[in-house]
């Protein structure tokens, strides 16, 4: 309906203009020196309108032609950008899936565009590091184009990982310490710095850095346990048999760090080596009261038999809570033997033997019955011990 009304208006306007033109007898004279041009007013109006439209079209064509090189350049740039985006996407997928060859192919495709960014090299280097190809990662990171970009912090982190893989701990620390203070607080930077300090055996600094890593959640659970064990092993090794230094290591340990059984074992061994048996016993008893951990029983066994009188109440308490644990039952028996509580020691060793017969327990029972002046019972256990030893020789 709208098109019909519009067409009708155009027809009406055209008829009106035609009628007005027919009744218009005016003329236009144009003089050029001695020459003149005669034309009707209607022709002059049409000529002016036509000239205007021709001039307009020519100007638009000229403007479009001047913009053509820019549009053509933009078109090709968009094509390159799309190709680069596709290559980087493929490289990232290859990095996630561990496809090292796919990452290399993606980098080659990005290089063909001529506008590759440092992102292409970061993806390729990360893929090489993920595949333990540190030599290739170092070669990529040393390329001139890989050094140009806005991701300098990421490049330093990758170079630090390569340096650590080559056991160049001092070089890795030098790279990390040259970063600005804000970048130094990044989780991966703190993690790499901790590994560098551990490599240089700067255990006290490594412990401080470890706590910083824990605060920013830079370590996985397994990495946390491994690092903490290595650090405390190093601290105990440096302390050696110096009781003052070992006491300092123990007092500096945080409660959350003493929840690790491996740390407790390291500290207990160091404390016993330096003669601080009571400190080792107290530390282990506190840990076992808070949370019973079977992994601590072997080292606690070593400490408890050295101070049987002091450890007996705690051992009895633990045995009441966990009566079925054979290692705890044997520990209680050993402590009772040290305290010359022959009856308790015998009953507990016999309970262990009933559940798990062995030459080791049979020998202890023989010795206990001899100490209790019960030679007949000692003879019985001597025969059982000989049977175990004979069976063991036959198996060998």
UniProtKB/TrEMBL annotation:
Its main location: membrane. Pathway: Porphyrin-containing compound metabolism; protoheme biosynthesis. Involved in a late step of protoheme IX synthesis. Pfam families: HemY_N. It is found in: Cell inner membrane. It is a multi-pass membrane protein. The chain crosses the membrane at residues 39-58. InterPro entries: Heme_biosyn_assoc_TPR_pro, HemY_N, TPR-like_helical_dom_sf. Residues 27-130 form the HemY N-terminal domain. It comes from the Bacteria. Gene3D superfamilies: Tetratricopeptide repeat domain. This is HemY N-terminal domain-containing protein. It comes from Limnobacter parvus.
């Amino acid at each position: 309906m709208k098109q019909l009304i519009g067409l009708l208006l155009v027809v009406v306007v055209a008829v009106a203009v035609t009628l007005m033109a027919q009744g218009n007898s005016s003329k236009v004279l144009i003089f050029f020196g001695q020459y003149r041009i005669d034309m009707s007013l209607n022709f002059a109006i049409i000529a002016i309108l036509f000239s205007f439209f021709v001039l307009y079209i020519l100007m638009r064509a000229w403007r479009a032609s001047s913009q053509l090189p820019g549009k053509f350049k933009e078109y090709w740039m968009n094509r390159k950008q799309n190709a680069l985006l596709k290559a980087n996407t493929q490289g990232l997928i290859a990095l996630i899936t561990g496809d090292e060859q796919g990452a290399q192919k993606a980098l080659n495709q990005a290089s063909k565009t001529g506008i590759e960014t440092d992102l292409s090299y970061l993806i390729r280097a990360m893929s090489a590091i993920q595949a333990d190809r540190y030599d290739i990662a170092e070669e990529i990171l040393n390329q001139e184009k890989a050094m140009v970009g806005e991701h300098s912090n990421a490049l330093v982190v990758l170079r630090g990982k390569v340096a650590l893989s080559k056991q160049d701990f001092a070089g890795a620390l030098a790279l990390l310490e040259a970063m600005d203070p804000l970048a130094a607080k990044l989780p991966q930077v703190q993690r790499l710095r901790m590994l560098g300090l551990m490599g240089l055996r700067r255990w006290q600094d490594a412990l401080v850095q470890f706590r910083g890593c824990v605060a920013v959640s830079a370590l996985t659970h397994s990495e946390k346990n491994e690092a903490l064990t290595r650090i405390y092993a190093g601290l105990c090794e440096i302390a050696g048999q110096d009781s003052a230094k070992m006491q300092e290591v123990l007092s500096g340990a945080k409660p959350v760090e003493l929840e690790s059984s491996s740390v407790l074992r390291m500290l207990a061994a160091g404390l016993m080596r330096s003669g601080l048996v009571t400190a080792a016993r107290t530390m282990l008893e506190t840990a076992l009261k808070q949370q019973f951990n079977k992994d601590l029983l072997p080292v606690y066994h070593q400490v408890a038999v050295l101070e049987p009188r002091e450890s007996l109440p705690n051992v009895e308490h633990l045995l009441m809570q966990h009566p079925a644990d054979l290692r705890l039952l044997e520990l209680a028996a050993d402590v009772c033997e040290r305290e010359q509580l022959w009856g308790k020691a015998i009953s507990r060793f016999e309970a262990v033997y009933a559940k798990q017969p062995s030459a080791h327990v049979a020998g202890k029972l023989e010795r206990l019955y001899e100490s209790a002046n019960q030679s007949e019972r000692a003879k019985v256990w001597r025969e059982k011990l000989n049977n175990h030893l004979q069976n063991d020789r036959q198996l060998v």
